[in-house]
Write a structure and sequence with these properties.
Blueprint lengths: L1 H10 L1 H24 L3 E2 L36 H4 L1 H14 L5 H10 L11 H6 L3 E5 L5 H9 L4 E6 L6 E10 L2 E5 L7 E2 L6 E2 L1 E7 L1
Antiparallel strand pairs: 1-7, 2-8, 3-4, 3-8, 4-5, 5-6
Helix pairs in contact: 4-5
């Protein structure tokens, strides 16, 4: 029986090709579902403009001044994993008008032991320092993002690079003509959230007290 089926497929290369294409399509659909799981597409209100500080502070995590600094006692460096700290530093700099670089902030965080052994930021420990207002939102929505911006605070959102790549953090600095603007620690220019598919996997907000 199996021998006959294999012989039939060999005699019908077109059918074999169709089956191969279907398998590839199913595999691709499964990959997309896994990559986009738990993400929420957000969009700024049409026609809305909420400008950020007169000068957006942009930091790169791979800046030579701090690129090789490790996150706490972990093996991870600012270059490889410093997007979140860079976003917080930019937010604090715009919030207080006092320069806070990713290098100085990471040194402070490392000294205060707010990283775990994998270099992940421990939000509870950061909040316990008493120097910052820390909000870790349990949901993702445009309402939360807009609320932070209206208060003059800058939400940090978790996205995927190019919409489907590795997880990455960017800082939303405002809204212009219905588009969220982002400071990306891997880019020199301000980016629209649409560059990441407008899909967000988490919202955090850190500001000075």
């Amino acid at each position: 029986m199996n021998h006959k089926r294999n012989k039939t497929l060999k005699n019908h290369p077109f059918l074999t090709g169709i089956l191969l294409i279907l398998c590839l399509l199913l595999a691709g659909a499964g990959f997309l579902c896994l990559r986009l799981r738990n993400g929420v597409q957000v969009k700024a209100p049409e026609g809305t403009t909420i400008l950020s500080a007169s000068e957006i502070v942009c930091y790169r995590q791979d800046d030579a001044r701090w690129a090789e600094d490790t996150l706490g006692y972990s093996k991870y460096t600012m270059h490889s994993s410093g997007c979140l700290v860079s976003c917080i530093a930019a937010a604090l700099s715009m919030d207080s008008n006092v320069e806070e670089t990713p290098g100085t902030l990471n040194a402070r965080f490392s000294s205060a032991q707010v990283y775990d052994e994998e270099g992940n930021l421990l939000w509870g420990c950061l909040s316990d320092l008493g120097d910052y207002r820390v909000d870790v939102f349990s949901e993702v929505s445009s309402r939360l993002i807009d609320g932070c911006l209206t208060e003059g605070r800058y939400p940090i959102v978790r996205v995927r690079i190019h919409g489907l790549g590795s997880f990455h953090y960017v800082l939303i600095t405002g809204i212009l003509d219905g588009e969220y603007l982002c400071m990306d620690p891997l880019q020199d220019d301000v980016m629209p959230l649409s560059a990441y598919g407008r899909r967000v996997y988490g919202i955090r907000c850190v500001s000075s007290i």
